[in-house]
Amino acid sequence: MQPQWQGTFISEALPAAAGDPAAYFRREFDVAEPPRRAILRLTALGIVVAHLNGVRVGEDVLSPGWTSYRHQLDVLSYDVTDLIVPGRNALGAVVGEGWASGNLTWLNQRCNYSDRPALFAELELSYADRTEVVATDDRWRVSTGGVRDNGIYAGETFDARLEPDGWALTGFDDEQWSTASAYAWELGTLREPVAPPIRRQEELAPVEIRSTTDGRHIVDFGQVLSGWVRLSVTGPAGTTVTLRHAELLTPTGELERETNRTAEATDRYVLRGAGRETWEPQFTFHGFRYVEVDGWPGDLVADDLRAVVVHSEMTRTGWFATSSDLVTKLHDNTVWSMRGNFVGVPTDCPQRDERLGWTGDLNAFAPTGTFLYDVRGVLDSWLRDLSAEQAETGNVPWFVPDVLSNVCTPTALWSDVAVNLPWQLYQEYGDPEILRRAYASMTAFVRQVEALLDDRDLWSSGFQFGDWLDPNAPAKDPSASTTDRYLIAQAYFCRTTAQMASAAELLGKHGDAEQFGALRDRVRGAFRHEYVAPSGRLVCESVTAYALAISLGLLDPEQRSRAGERLALLVEQAGYTIQTGFAGTPLVTDALSSTGHLTAAYRLLLQEQCPSFLYPITQGATTIWERWDAVQPDGTLNSTGMTSLNHYALGAVADWLHRVVGGLQRLEPGWRRFRVAPEPGGGLTWARTAHETVHGRVGCSWSIEDGRMRLDVQVPSGTRADVVLPADPEARVVEVGPGEHCWQYDLAPVLSTAGTSTFESSLREVYNDATAWPRVSAVLEEYFPGASVETALGLFGDSPMSTLVDFMPERATDLERDVRAALAPEASA
Ligand code: BGC
């Protein structure tokens, strides 16, 4: 970056009020001869779009993105050599309010960084013998144009009649424009971007356009996404086309805008009336699937509209698909929610009056996110913001960048992102530099919580988000989870201190490592003393509590196995509906499968009844919802307010899909060594998983056909894999090096005959037989309508199915025949 900046920030003379138009800046300059190289360095307090001689510079959108501006503001660089002409040239830029001065958070707080849009630019012209710089200063002119009110949440209005013809070309008469004023901003904040730019990624055509009786159109793009709509329209000057965005329709087919909360999410285009006009907003983005088009002149056809998908430019690195379309869709929806929420800052959601870098959401999602995309740039940038803000206030903000300057007391799963995220990134990419950079921030957080521990070494005071959005928490208080919030805090702090001790060791800070290791042992001991009975039962018997104790390594082997049994029982008692929020969901399937309850894990995964992983998909979800029951079975929106339809946090289950269903498990940082150990179940007949690591592509694909398993494994050079052949009668584990490997073998009987339960099996065994249960339960529903399975399991779950007939002597023969047929349909056919 430039050691010495020559420009200053410039702006209009007065602060901007809400709803003010964007600022248009321009300046002409002369070039005696073509420069060897011309570089435009550009940033803004606001969102900036630059033009050189009438040509839009670069392909980035929403520049310079959002960072903790007071600490670091990104300056984008563009090679514009080809746009410079000998003689007179014109440089122009439009700056909208963006994140710098526009509304942010549910408080709709304005002017969080500046009281008006301001521009900073330096055009560096390099000649053989000298360098000239055209920089923002008082030689620039400023005015307004077609971009009227504009806001991240509100949307954008563009009046094409007000766009000055040729304002970004030479020869434009800017006599009526004002002289730009200098705007005070600390130039020490300027830096080269660490994150990749935000760009248009994809375009979607409407899948349906429905006209209403009052002349509006409801357009469905078939996918919840982040971005905007580009329109092409012909009509009389002054016609206003209004686009309102929403993620959902009401049962009567109107826009359901409640999930946007106070975000207006409305774009307006006022026609110039000069043939076909094409327009898309540049100073806002929306989270939406549906658009209501009002005021369209003439017929609206699919070719007139495109949804433009926008997010940070990241390389895709993870893929997963399986024989269950619903599970594959669950994974696809997770990918879409990641795309929708990596628009610069990794956010909670992209549609409502938040779109904030909530730490807990990212912390829960980090293992999944690092598998799906190369997130180094985006998250490195975000972590730098986090540590800068933490260094200033002593606290890890609850969301980063923190515009509310809340007093953010430390909370589990949210604040400990300061440790877990660098640790996850190190594991994925194998680069210790990540830990080195974050070390001060990690240490400060751990020390801060250490000082809060009570005399029993328990984290037992202060606010906690708990198992946020536990489906059993009271609707109005998502943090009041059924799981004791301090149990959650202690469990996560056990993980945090263990990671801290390992990080210190790895960086050669042996003194620290010893201290953090001792702290880890103390808090783990305190957890076990306070919350775990010697048998392995927990004092707080909830799915999340067991998931944490098991997955975070807080139990002895015998305790662990007992805890696994209790967990399996709890999920069974809940009918395999989901009982976990942000804290438990990332871990629950893993806790089950790793304690020998794979079948229960699959039952949980495959449940479709609300609340469950697959329920939203049965409701047509195309992204992950914030809460399991955001949309209720009757199609109406849950009235609680936490109902974003695009929240990646609960998509954290995809990590288990990759590791256990798909079988790819990293053993060493950077995937130098990994394990391939898919665990088929739930009636799935195949799964394909691939991941582009820093060493190249790792892959695992398995399929079961006619009682035979085929396993294909891809190992990139420089790595080794331990392959655990799934359901292999010989239980082979083989170590392989780089290359493509394939195994085919007859399966152990338990997997080759899906659905092993018989009429003599217990009700519980049949219930846990994912193949037979759907058929058997249909029969039981016919004979015992409305009876609760959970109650039946509690009363006589261990009795054989054959005793069922005792409950219905008058229809005993029919019942036995139908249950037997349901258990072995082929035999009875
Ligand atoms: C966000 C969450 C976040 C939470 C914490 C919400 O409004 O959308 O995902 O983590 O607040 O309170």
Q: Your description of this structure?
A:
The protein folds into five domains: 9-195, Galactose-binding domain-like (Jelly Rolls), CATH 2.60.120.260; 199-312, Jelly Rolls; 318-661, Glycosyltransferase (Alpha/alpha barrel); 665-746, Maltose phosphorylase, domain 3, CATH 2.60.420.10; 763-828, no CATH class. The strands form eight sheets. Strands 12, 13, 17, 18, 19, 20, 23, 24, 25 and 26 form a ten-stranded mixed β-sheet that branches. Strands 1, 3, 7, 9, 10 and 15 form a six-stranded antiparallel β-sheet that branches. A six-stranded antiparallel β-sheet has the order 5-4-8-2-11-14. 28% of the residues lie in helices and 24% in strands. Helix 9 (543-551) packs antiparallel against helix 10 (557-573). The longest helix is centred in the middle third of the chain and has 22 residues, at 485-506. With 829 residues, it is of the alpha+beta class. The N and C termini lie far apart (76 Å). The protein contains 20 helices and 37 strands. It is globular, with a radius of gyration of 29 Å.
